[in-house]
Design a protein that fits this description.
Keywords: Membrane, Transmembrane, Transmembrane helix. One of its GO terms (cellular component) is cytoplasm. Pfam families: CREG_beta-barrel. This is CREG-like beta-barrel domain-containing protein. The chain is 31% helix and 19% strand. A hairpin with a 6-residue loop joins strand 6 and strand 7. It is an alpha+beta fold. It has a domain of 167 residues: Electron Transport, Fmn-binding Protein, Chain A (Pnp Oxidase, Chain A, Roll), CATH 2.30.110.10.
């Protein structure tokens, strides 16, 4: 008679549980499928010339590096659909005081490339147009938090790392019937469908304007604002990826305001 051998475990010794055969098969199958998918994905990326990381990133609306001041300015202008517009008040009680208003703007139709020029409608029923008719100097402010980008990323809107720009210049009225008027109107209608009703409403007499820029100040990091030249601003392409985010140039601060003497009323 054969006596079966018996293995005794020591007191307190734990025995590792043995996974059922079915579970092992599923684990092996999962690993094989994952390996096949990753291999296929890597091959596809090599053929398309894209990196694996790029494919999972959606940087179509990612702000440029904070050291690229001109590009940051163009990015914020193109992204903005409204601005805080400051003018010099003509109201008797506060004549000459700074006054601010929310004005809808567009630098191109939605989905089209940036132009860097802000177009907007005004009506003489509103105090901003009355102010600018007397003195067409103005400053607009745009912030990266206009769509809550900073708030969603845990950055207070007042922090320098929540980018903002202050653009100063003069409001120029655009003549109806010109190519620029057609472009600016189409841009506004695209982003602000309500604007179509504004100009069709009797008695309101909305007219199209653009901001003729004198100075651009960018504050997008600690250390104070950076002043962007018009040449750099117009040359920047906010839709083009940066090859380098390094900054080797010194910050040059030109005069804060235009050297133009006197005031100019809108045509």
């Amino acid at each position: 008679m054969t006596i079966p051998s018996v293995t005794y475990k020591q007191f307190g010794e734990t025995v590792a549980p043995v996974a059922p055969v079915g579970t092992k098969r599923w684990i092996v199958l999962y690993i094989m499928v994952s390996a096949i998918l990753l291999t296929t994905l890597a091959c596809w990326n090599n053929l398309s010339g894209r990196s694996l990381i790029e494919m999972f990133e959606d940087d179509s609306d990612t702000p440029p590096p904070h050291t690229e001041y001109a590009k940051m300015a163009r990015y914020l202008v193109h992204k903005a659909e409204w601005v805080s517009m400051g003018s010099l008040s003509t109201v008797d009680a506060i004549k000459g005081f700074p006054m601010v208003n929310i004005i809808s703007v567009a630098d191109s139709a939605r989905g089209e490339k940036s132009t860097g020029t802000l177009y907007f409608y005004l009506t003489m029923l509103d105090y901003t147009a009355q102010d600018l008719d007397r003195d067409n100097r103005l400053t607009v402010m745009l912030t990266l938090d206009q769509d809550l980008y900073c708030t969603r990323n845990g950055i207070d809107p007042m922090e320098p790392t929540c980018a903002r720009i202050m653009v100063s210049g003069r409001a120029d009225k655009i003549e109806n019937g010109t190519a620029e008027y057609a472009f600016g109107s189409r841009a506004m209608f695209s982003r602000h469908p309500a604007a179509q009703k504004w100009i069709e409403t009797d008695g309101h007499n909305f007219f199209l304007c653009k901001l003729n820029i004198t100075q651009i100040a960018v504050l997008d990091f600690y250390g104070g604002p950076h002043y962007v030249t018009m040449a750099d601003y117009l040359a920047a392409d906010p839709d083009k990826r940066s090859s380098s985010s390094s900054n080797t140039s010194e910050r040059q601060i030109p005069p804060r305001f235009s050297t133009t003497e006197g005031t100019t009323a809108m045509p």
